Amino acid sequence: MSHPSTTVPRTGGAVPHGSRGPRSPRALPRFPQPTTLLTAALTVVTVLTGCAPGTGGGADGDGGGETTLTVWSWRPEDAAGYERIFDAYEKRHPGVKVEFTGHKNTEYPAILQTGLTQRSGGPDVVQLKPYGPIQAFIQAGQLAPLDEEVDLSSWPEETVDAARGREDGGIYGVPFALQTLGVLYNREIFAEHGLEPPETWDDMIDAAKKLKKADIIPFATSGQEPWVLALLRETMGATRVGGDAFSQKVLDGTTDFTDPDYVASLRAVADLKPYLPSDVTAVGYTDAQTLFTSGRAAMYPGGGFELAPFRQANPDLDIGYFDAPVVPGSPVDAPLTPGFADGSYGVNASSQNKDAAVELVAWMATEEFGRAFAEELHQIPAVPGVEPTDPLLAAMLRGYQDHGTPYMMGVHFGYGDPLGRDAEGMALASLLLGELTAKEAGKQVQKDVAAWFEPKG
Description:
Layout: H1 37-49, E1 67-73, H2 79-92, E2 96-102, H3 108-117, E3 125-128, H4 135-139, H5 157-160, E4 174-175, E5 177-186, H6 187-192, H7 201-213, E6 217-219, H8 226-241, H9 244-251, H10 260-270, H11 285-293, E7 297-303, H12 307-313, E8 319-322, E9 337-341, E10 344-347, H13 354-363, H14 367-377, E11 380-381, H15 391-403, E12 404-406, H16 408-411, H17 420-432, H18 438-450
Parallel strand pairs: 1-2, 1-3, 6-7, 9-12
Antiparallel strand pairs: 3-10, 4-10, 5-7, 5-8, 5-9, 5-11
Helix pairs in contact: 1-2, 1-13, 1-14, 2-14, 8-10, 8-17, 10-18, 17-18
């Protein structure tokens, strides 16, 4: 049976998601339908206002003049959407102006580190990477605690954990998006070659062979970027380890990354090499995106965060989605949808407009903001109770609700140096280059992660 491109195939048989052990899918409740676009826009604007760094007169200072909030982000591609959000927010908050600054993703960590050390002139509200990367800023006292300012008590713990201090358990940000992983595909190419979303792993390989014979790259991905390879392993190989059940065993010391199931998941990705771009380890992230948006590649294993830039690059691109089929030999018998919270917005502890910034960030936790975020930025909002209107994003969210599993290397093993995703990505690159066997790659991941991780048991 084929699966419509806007729905997630097969439900059930999933490993419950959660960052502190198995959870029921109730953690991500069914969301009501969004309200009007106007309401959404007003909500987003309100939220984003709290994200802008303060460079102007102060709401917390002399009480007069205009308060300028500045927000820093690693997504300059979202600037137009945020401008619309800010315009609406400013209309509802006279005397407040919001300025959005998007920095290049690869340069953002260093820029943010410098900005948060400034006593003046730094940002008011900052976009923060989830889980491990936020910890250094928390420990340095550079982020304002939000426990008493924002109520996230009704949010799923695995979402809030993305902005929680590892040592003190405090909340230092409001998560803004959920990301799910699956396989995006070009529906026009599939139709032209008589293909449908695959039911089984063998179906997918057969489709890849047919596409390659037609001089179409089956899967576009970047082997140059460790984090992209880690997402590829999770997208294609989550079933082979059994989803979160495997993560929990590593966390409690029952097993580690030399486990045969994990090694097999690495091997499953390596087996896809004939269907990846030539010299894949030299292919950059933006190059991989272009291969898909230009129609040179038929499939793209990745996240929902790719949809908006893909459509911007090629508005005529007809994109479908399916969960990666179960890898043969897997401990589970149905597909899984990996997911994670993609960062948060926090307040600079040195902001000269702290009260206004906190008010803005608190607004980001409301359904109003969530609707606006979904409408303007075309992503899955982290706010419970809000479902995206985009059919593909809605399908991805339903997949995570029905048969989701946490993105292992981000949610569970993203707290040390090297990050789990980087350790896994570098080992995968060596595996694809033929420098390591799958077993040796598993040993390398275990060695790198063990440098900072100690099992609970």
